[in-house]
């Protein structure tokens, strides 16, 4: 029954991601704007994942025989949403300070909020509905909890991360089969990022015992990379130059946010374990 529940959870997040991307394509055929397409994708994604996963959670509690007094997704733990945002923001700020002092990047301009605030706010809504909320609820939530009822923590984290990686791989293949453009370009760099990112998100959920922490971290990571780190044609908060092409952005987005998140989480978990043993 646990494996069946695991499969149902994985199929839910994978199928919903595919249908979400497909809904955007359909909306485009009706001549809707890009923003409208993104909003539809987000609504379809969360509209499918959230109720199904919450329903499956009820069965998970019955099958595993373990139901916490306060579920990890409970609104009572929602204040940890800001814990995740604060952690990601702090790591990013430290990353920019280090990269600047080391001469890896040179900040050229801070842009007026009138330039980036509205696009940022809209992207936060889309990213929350399409990525952060459904992915965390399904992957770092249900799938991890089912795995944890069967395996040790480190194995549950590992298997959850592999399932996380399998989602975009399978969705890409489904998109190709139906004639859509793949949503992601699968490279070695992408695979390494997804694996480390999945571990980071799972660990921040574990040490706070709140799914809202990983949701907040996930959302903050997306906005920081899109509106601060990536220097593309879209609106950004700052403009900077790199002395070595790609080094500064890679250090901040991967070195500080992802690897830094893993290190901080492991330190906190290790400290809590040490304190418990000494008590």
Give your account of this protein's structure:
This protein has 279 residues and is mainly α. It has one domain. Helices cover 77% and strands 4% of the residues. It has eight helices and two strands. It has helices at 2-29, 34-64, 80-101, 113-148, 153-177, 188-208, 211-229, 247-278; strands spanning 105-110, 238-242. It has a two-stranded antiparallel ribbon with strand order 1-2. The longest helix is centred in the middle third of the chain and has 36 residues, at 113-148. It is globular and about 55 Å long. The two termini are 38 Å apart. The mean pLDDT is 93.
Which characteristics define this entry?
mainly alpha; 279 residues; 8 helices; 2 strands; globular; 77% helix
Cα-to-Cα separation, first versus last residue: 38 Å
Which sheet architecture does the biggest sheet show? 2 strands, antiparallel
Average of the residue pLDDT scores: 93
* Spatial arrangement of strands, main beta sheet: 1-2
Q: What is the strand tally?
A: 2
Question: Ranges with pLDDT <50 over ≥5 residues?
Answer: none
The proportion of strand residues reads under 5%
Range of helix content: over 70%
Counted up, domains total 1
Structural class of the secondary structure composition?
mainly alpha
Could you say which overall geometry the principal axes of the C-alpha atoms support? Answer: globular
């Amino acid at each position: 029954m646990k494996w069946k529940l695991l499969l149902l959870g994985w199929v839910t997040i994978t199928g919903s991601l595919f249908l979400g991307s497909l809904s955007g394509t359909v909306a485009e055929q009706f001549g809707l704007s890009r923003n409208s397409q993104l909003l539809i994708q987000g609504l379809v994604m969360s509209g499918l994942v959230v109720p199904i996963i919450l329903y499956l959670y009820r069965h998970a509690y019955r099958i595993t025989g373990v139901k916490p007094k306060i579920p990890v997704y409970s609104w009572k733990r929602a204040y940890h949403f800001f814990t995740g945002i604060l952690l990601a923001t702090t790591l990013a700020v430290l990353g920019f300070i280090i990269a600047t002092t080391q001469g890896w990047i040179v900040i050229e301009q801070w842009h007026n909020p009138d330039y980036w605030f509205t696009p940022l706010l809209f992207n936060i809504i889309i990213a929350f509905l399409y990525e952060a909320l459904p992915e965390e609820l399904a992957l770092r939530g249900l799938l991890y909890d089912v795995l944890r009822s069967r395996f040790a923590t480190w194995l549950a984290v590992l298997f959850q991360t592999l399932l996380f990686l399998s989602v975009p791989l399978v969705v890409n293949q489904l998109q190709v089969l139906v004639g859509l453009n793949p949503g992601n370009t699968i490279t070695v760099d992408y695979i390494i990022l997804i694996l480390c990112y999945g571990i980071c998100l799972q660990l921040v959920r574990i040490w706070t015992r709140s799914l809202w922490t990983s949701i907040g971290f996930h959302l903050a990571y997306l906005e920081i990379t899109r509106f601060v780190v990536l220097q593309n044609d879209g609106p950004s908060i700052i403009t900077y130059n790199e002395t070595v092409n790609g080094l500064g952005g890679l250090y901040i987005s991967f070195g500080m946010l992802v690897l830094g998140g893993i290190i901080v989480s492991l330190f906190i978990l290790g400290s809590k374990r040490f304190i418990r043993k000494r008590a």
